[in-house]
Structure formats: structure tokens, C-alpha cells
Amino acid sequence: MCAIIVLTTHWLSYLLLFIWLIRLAATRRKELIIYTCLLMSATFFFAGFEKNHNRTALLAEDQLFLIELDPNKLKIDGDQIQFYGTVKEAGTKVKLAEKVVVFYRLSTEEEKNNWKKQQKVEDFIVTGSLAKPEKNRNLNQFDYHRYLYRNKIHWIVEATTIDIHSELQQQTFFDKLNLKNLRQNILAHIESETTATIASYIKTLLFADTSSIDDQVMSGYKEIGIIHLLSISGLHIQFFITGLTYILWRLGVTRERTYLLLLIFLPLYGSLTGWGTSIFRAIVMSLLSQTGARIRKPISGLDAWSWTLIFGLWLNPYQIFSIGFQLSYLLSLTLMLFSDSLFNRSKLASINNVVISFILTLISIPILSFHFFEFSWIGMFANLIFVPLFTWVVMPLSIFLFASSYLLSGTLFFHFLSNLMESLLEMTEWLVLKIKLFPYSTIVTGKVPFGLFILMIIGLILFIVALEGRKKIKRSVVLLVVVFTIFIYYQKYNPFGEVLVLDVGQGDAILIKKPFGAGVYLIDTGGAMAFEKEEWQITKKQSTVASRVLIPVIKSLGVTQIDQVFITHGDEDHMGELKELAESINIKKLIFPVGTTKKQPFYEAAQTLEKNGTKLSALTAENTQKQLFGPSLAVLWPLKAGEGENNDSLVLYGKIGDYYWLFPGDIEEAGEAELAALYPNLRVDILKVAHHGSQTSTSEKFVQQLNPKIALISCGLNNRYNHPNEAVMERFVELNTTVYRTDLQGSFRYTYSDDLTRVKERDFQTILK
Q1: Domain 64-172 is found in CATH 2.40.50
Q2: Are strands 710-713 and 686-688 parallel, antiparallel or unpaired?
Q3: Which of 180, 172, 155, 204 is nearest to 69 (CA)?
Q4: Whole-angstrom Cα distance, residue 428 to residue 226?
Q5: Residue 738: what are its φ and ψ, rounded to 5°?
Q6: Looking at 475-597, which runs of residues are DSSP E strands?
Q7: Which residues contact 626 (CB under 8 A, 6 or more apart)?
């Protein structure tokens, strides 16, 4: 609470601290109160110190940098390089130590191969420009700016050249002792001595390097709720400690020397793995407990947990905001508190395991929902299969293969073990991907109001306490079920409807959600223009508009199914994310103008959706004159079949809330003229500006006839087409039309209600204000 108060000054933190202080004073234990106040003061000091020093010394005009590169932070994908480095010098400023994230585009395949050989900490001379991390541009989107700030990074370096610093060509003796270099050498050895699959698991399970595991497989582990098995945790550390202790004792090493060896080995191992949250917690807790036993002042598990939490926050208060920190400490605390009273009641270990998995899954729901807007219930069953598999088979084999790669590499025995491990991992991944396909295994909650989170937490606490005490269980179950049901369905059946013009860069995507979950509709999906690249330039882990914006934002509204998706025409920036969107969110019906299937990318995407059960509907304005779609939208254009080009765009018109909306796709001036002639008295309050504000659309005559109150322009920041056109903007100025632009203001949100207008007024908002 102290750390949150200093870092965010959240009102709830003050309230909880006040209640806790009253509870502390009620104990009337003078010694406890004094020590607690001292700890609080220290926490306030460290958190305040970190906040005050989380500032930049770099200037926007700096263009020349000396940056230390840690090869463990280097990512190479296609023709792109990204790494987190430390700026030592910038222009005339020396003796700096500021972290930055560097992006660089490779020019040749040879250059890429040279970067792949980078295996030691080294200084580079980098030329480029500094850019401020972009703030969140969409509703409930991942806030990259805040993420970097909490990692004490204030600038992105967009590098144009990167050269090795000449003074560091020779590797010194101290460089060889550098644990970062040692870690990189170990990872390189693992890759050279084992297959790609085995290497990816050994690096993940033993050295916390998940970069090599296939994205689809990693997604499977995450979706079925067992991603924790791929992170080094207390289970892993305890496994190492038990195994190492047993070996040392069998070799005749005394308990005293065993303790000293562990005192050396565990911090060394923590450094090699990068000191992740779970690793830090497990190692420090173990060392505290063993040290207490060694000096004959036993430390309870709860005290060791508490001191580890405090030490961790003193070192880095910002980690309290990370999901890894929250889950690691919360779940480990739950295991300690109820290990005797609740988790070991049955004589059958299998029943106890079911109870543990069930309780831990329940406990994690609020945190998972807060960060990802969804959780997987199937994890409580998947854990029963995969935890024993990883604990007793995969982990021991990984350790043995790693050790034997230095001693037995090339032997028949090592080859046999490698084949066995390869087959086991293939079976494991196959099973993960099969379970991932289990229907309704993921429950989407959306972004739940903070008050409902508190009620959910209270309900969980009362339920677990009732189970432990075996009192008032029925009441606690009823309360939990009621709160849980509201928690899950609140956002889906929200009484307010909304129209979201998403910021998808240079493209269009408009989401319409009716009140009380009566319908969800999407006009276009956005998408990036594809350019031909050589094979070495193609990125494997692409950051798409769908994965970065479309899917997270839609899920944050509690949406699991879209009733109708309208594709206005066949250009990539309007339909490019359709296929990927359908892989995560069910689409009942796809509506598009006749002739759009002549565009090959759209045709292929539509065929894929149809095979998966989506109904396709190709139409024109002539054959749908008396038919309404979506939230009461009429089709005004095209009149006949086209080629899927701009002037063949689907034009939609209708009333949403108290306003009349026109969505014209990318229709151009010729089409606008015909449309204006067909509908001379069309009332338009809100105009979604055609073709991103291009000069080929939104003609002066057309705009004057419509005379909209509000104009919405979807275009990319600093786009290559210079959209919107100045002449188009001047037309809106002359009409006193309020203009909202996604490139300047982020996504646009209109909130309305059919029945509760007195409760909440109609609402226009933009993310960047």
C-alpha cells in the first residue's frame, strides 16, 4: 500500500492504509507498532526515491549515443532488431546510465547473420533520433508508454546506424566473468548441442528465456491456464535445492558446507536467470528460511514471504504493477495460509490437488481479468495433468540433458535421451493445442468496474474462509455465485451502447455495441498494406493491428461474438485483419458489396470464414432497399456490382442514439455526386469522412449538402499520404463542423442509452483528448 500511495496516490490505497493503521493501533503492542512504522517509513522512502529519480537526462535533439548492449535483451526478427540498452554517453553528456529501447532495421542478410553472433555485453555507437513512447491511443489498449515508464525507460531510439565501439574490440578477463556473457554462452551451447525444440524448453525452464518457444504453442499454454509452468517459480527452485542438497549429502558434504554452497549457488543461479519476480521470491525466501534455521532463529514461511515482499519492493517498487509480481506473491501466500487447513484434508493426494488447483484458479481470476479481460477455467483441470508431467518428467529430463550436454554430448545415450525428450515435448505440445480448442474454455469478462472488482475479492475471501472453517458454506457459495455472475456478464450486458472509431493507423475500424448486449457490429477491420520482402526480412512475430488493437479492445467490452461484420470494400486497410479477428472472436455474418470477392485477399479470407461457419452476404443497395442491417442501418451504395474498389464501397446510413450517422467507406467524388442526387434531403449529424480525408473524396458540394455537426477522420499518424487533405479540413472549418481525428486524438467514443438518458448524458470522448 505504501508503494502504491507514493507511485500512484490512489484513493483506495489511502483508505486501506487508514483501516490497517486502526487495526494495528488496536493491537496495543508497542513493539509491533514501532517496528511497523519503521518499515512503512523505509518503504515510503524507497518508493519516493525511485519516483523522484525516474527521470530522463536525455534531450530530444540528441542524435549520437554510446549504448551498452546486453545480448540477453536482443531480439532479432526478420529485418528488425530491438534491444534494451543503457546509454553511457549522449552528445556531450558523459557518465550516464539511462535505459532506452532501440529499434533498428537491417539492410542485408549478412548484417543479420552478424547480429545473430552477438554473444557478449558490448558498447555500440548509435546514431539516430529519440522518440517519446506513444501513449495509449485506444480504449483499454495496452499502455506501452506506462509500461516503459515503470521500467524506467523514457525514450525510444530509432537507430539509423549501429557500429561497435572500437575501444572494446578485445574481450578482457572481467568481460569473460560477466554473468550476462556467461548466460549468453550457456544459451548458445544449449542451441548447438540439442534440437530446436529441446533447446527452447531447456532455455525456458532453466534460464527463463522464452524467446525460442513457438508463438502458437506459447499461446496455447497461456489460453489453457498453465503458462506458469514455463516460468521459473518456487517449484523449480525447491526442486533444485532438494536435488542439489541430496547430491551433496550423498557425496559426504556436511550440512554446514551444504548451506554455504547453496548460499553461493542460489544467488549465482538467480543472476544467470535474470532475477525474475518468481525467481527472486523463491530464492530469497529459501535463503531466509535456511539462514534462520542455521542461526537457530527459525523464520516462519509467512515471515519469509513478508520480508521477501518488502525487500523486493524496496529494490523496485514499480514491480507491484506487473501481473507476474501480483500472481507470484498472491498464489504463494494462498498456498502457505491454507496448506494445512484446506489443502491437506483428504488422505488422497489427487483430491487435494483438485482443491489446490480450484482455489488457485479462483484466486487468480480478478488479476487475469484486470490485465487481459479474460480468464481460462480449464486451467484447473489442465494443471492436474501438466504439473506432475513437468515436475517429475520434463524438468528432470531438462536438467539431465543440460548437464550431460557438457559431458556426454555425441554419445548414443545422449542421443537416446534427446529423442525421448523430443517425442515427449511433441506429445505435450500436441495435447496443449488440442485442449486449447476445447469450446468455451476462455471466459471473457471485459473491463470490469473497480467497485465490482472489490466485491469479487470480498466474495472470494468469504468463500475461502467459509471453506476453511466449514461454516456458512452455503451462504458464501450463493454470494460468490451472484457476484461472479455479475462480474462475468456486467460488461457484456452493459445498459449503455457505444460507437467506437478505433485508431488502427492508416485504415478504418468502427465498432458499434447496442445497449444490454442486443447486438455487436463492426464496420471494417483495419489492416496494414503488405509489401514484398525477401525471406530473411519476413518477421515471425508480427505485431498486427488485430492482436495489438482490434481484439483487445473488443474483448475489453465483454464481446465474444460479433453479429455482423461489414467490409466496405476490398482494400487491405479496410479488411486486412478479418481473418485474424475471426480466429479469436466468432463472427456470425459477413456483409460486403457484390464484387468485393474479385479482390483475392478478401476472397481468401471470406472463404476461410465461411468454412468455419460464418454466413456470407453479398449485396447492393438495389436489392436491399427495404432491409436494415446492424443497429438499424440502411445500405445506400453501391447500386450495382463492382470490383471491390473505392467507388464500390458499401455506404451505410442510420440512426444510432439520437444522431444520424453516415459511414461512406472510401467512396470518391463521383460516387458522392450520385449519392447526393439520390438522397438530396439526407440528414447527417455525424459523418465518418470517406477515404481518410483524401482530396479525392469529401467534395465541397457533398459536404455542404450534408452539413454534418461532427466529422470523424480515421488516419495514421504522420501517414505517407498526408491525410487528411488541407482543402478537406477547410471545408469543415467553413461549416463550423467539429472534427475528430484519430491521428491527433486517438480513438473516438460515443456513449448512449435508449432508456437511461436521464442517468447518463450522451457522451463524446477521445482517448488523447
Answers
A1: yes
A2: parallel
A3: 180
A4: 12
A5: -75, 125
A6: 497-501, 510-513, 520-523, 561-566, 586-593
A7: none
CA–CA separation, 674 and 642 (whole Å):
15
Given the DSSP bridges, would you call strands 738-741 and 586-593 parallel, antiparallel or unpaired?
unpaired
pLDDT in tens, 113-143: 999 888 888 899 999 999 999 888 999 998 9
Which run of H or E residues covers position 398?
helix 395-407
pLDDT at 72: 87
Instruction: Give the C-alpha distances (Å, rounded to integers) separating 503 from 537, 549, 555, 744.
Output: 27, 8, 16, 10
From the list 278, 120, 116, the residue with the least C-alpha distance to 212 is 116
Q: Is-same-fold flag (64-172; 497-530+543-766)?
A: no
SS3 category, 381: helix
388 prior amide bond cis, ω within 30: no
Q: Rg of the Cα trace of the chain? A: 29
Cβ-in-10-Å burial (0-12, 13-18, 19+) of 247 comes to exposed
CA distances, 225 to each of 378, 392, 548 (Å): 7, 19, 21
Backbone angles phi, psi at 566, to 5 degrees: -100, 125
User: Which pTM does this prediction carry?
Assistant: 0.89
C-alpha span between 300 and 313 (Å, rounded): 20
DSSP-assigned letter for residue 93: B
Tell which residue, 615, 634, 612, 616, has the closest CA to residue 624. 634
Distance (Å, rounded) from C-alpha 482 to C-alpha 474? 12
Helices (H), 694-748: 700-706, 726-734, 742-745
Determine the pLDDT at residue 161: 94
User: What is the greatest pairwise CA distance in the chain?
Assistant: 96
The domain segmentation of the chain, as residue ranges, is: 2-53, 64-172, 450-489, 497-530+543-766
User: Shortest CA distance to 175 belongs to which of 125, 122, 124?
Assistant: 122
The stretch 290-302 carries a mean pLDDT of 88
Q: Scanning the structure block, which residue is given the C-alpha cell 488485430?
A: 546
List phi, psi (to 5°) of 174.
Answer: -70, -30
Residue 8: pLDDT band (50, 70, 90) is low
Residues in the chain: 769
CA distance 456 to 454: 5
Q: How far apart are the C-alpha atoms of 29 and 685, rounded to whole Å? A: 67
For residues 540 and 287, the model is more confident at: 287
User: Is CATH 3.60.15.10 what the domain over 497-530+543-766 is classified as, yes or no?
Assistant: yes
Residue 5 — pLDDT band, cuts 50, 70, 90?
A: low
Q: No. of H helices and E strands in the chain?
A: 29, 22
